[in-house]
Amino acid sequence: MPGPQQSAELQGVSGSPQEPHTRSDGPIRKPVPPRMGRFTRYLSNLLRGKGPSATMEELADMSATSKAPKGGEVAIEKPPLLIGNNPLDLEAIFKTPDHIVRMEVPPKISGEKPISVETQVTESSVEINTNQYNNPPFHFVAQVFQDNGVNTLSMSVKNRDENGNPAEGFPRIGPLTDAALAFLDSRCDIPQFQAQWFPVSGSDNFAQYEAGLASGLTPEQAAFQTYSGQRIAKAHGFTEFLGIQPVELSPTLIGWRVMFGRKKPQSTSQPHQ
């Protein structure tokens, strides 16, 4: 758990999480369309270990020249997530022998050493870290743990220095979260999302929640108007408010623990007569 001197958009839980329950039928895979653009074909082949290497210029060209769908062809609207000049492919990282990929981010100033980045992907977590001495550092963790037997998403992010300046050379938190949750959702059911907000530098969620309460919003309304309530919870189907309670890291550092939930799909079976 980050200390009071650290800043974070989202705060996760401390300790080692229990392994989440995975889907009984294995990972869900979306069918590959019969016809694909060059960029999509490259990514599809790369995931299967068949793709040749490509420069970033070639990737950008393939992305820019992809056209709107015609028949089964897929349009590519955005280039891949990048860490420095490296495409971030969570599925490909997961298939590496130790599930860890080490990358480099070019330095801000010519002549300085590049920033060393380590990305680790498991069945229940996605973690990206730079060396703690880098300024600003970059830390992103999305993990699934067991909360009273229920798979629960927890996130921890640090991407700013003490002055609020963002770390350069890394994806924005929103798209990175989208990619991480798409990967984790393919591995297990995630009915809950837990966020923890503390009054530390860079914690927009805590300030947004407190401002919402001060303006007369209910705890539920205030929680959903925060960044993580809007960009994480609502955007990924956690549209139920399951509650919020104070959480104490120390006598002088008290924040909020909020839980969002996904609605269970309605059964289509007929009741027994």
Question: Would you give an account of this structure?
Answer:
- The protein has seven helices and ten strands.
- It is α+β, with helices and mostly antiparallel strands.
- It has one domain.
- The chain has an eight-stranded mixed sheet with strand order 3-4-5-6-7-8-10-9. Strands 1-2 form a two-stranded antiparallel ribbon.
- The longest helix has 13 residues.
- It is globular, with a radius of gyration of 20 Å.
- The protein starts with 37 loop residues before the first helix and ends in a 12-residue tail after the last strand.
Average the pLDDT over all residues and give the rounded result. 76
Which series of helices and strands comes N to C? HHEEHEEEEEHEHHHEE
Radius of gyration: 20 Å
Largest sheet: 8 strands, mixed
Report the strand count: 10
What is the subunit organization of this protein?
Answer: single chain
Please give a quick description of this structure.
With 273 residues, this protein is of the alpha+beta class. Helix content is 23%, strand content 25%. Residues 1-17, 24-77 and 268-273 have low confidence and may be disordered.
Give short descriptive properties of this protein.
two-stranded antiparallel sheet; alpha+beta; single chain; 10 strands
Map the helices and strands.
Elements: H1 38-47, H2 56-65, E1 82-83, E2 86-87, H3 90-94, E3 100-105, E4 115-121, E5 125-130, E6 139-147, E7 150-158, H4 173-185, E8 192-197, H5 204-214, H6 219-224, H7 227-233, E9 240-250, E10 253-261
Parallel strand pairs: 7-8
Antiparallel strand pairs: 1-2, 3-4, 4-5, 5-6, 6-7, 8-10, 9-10
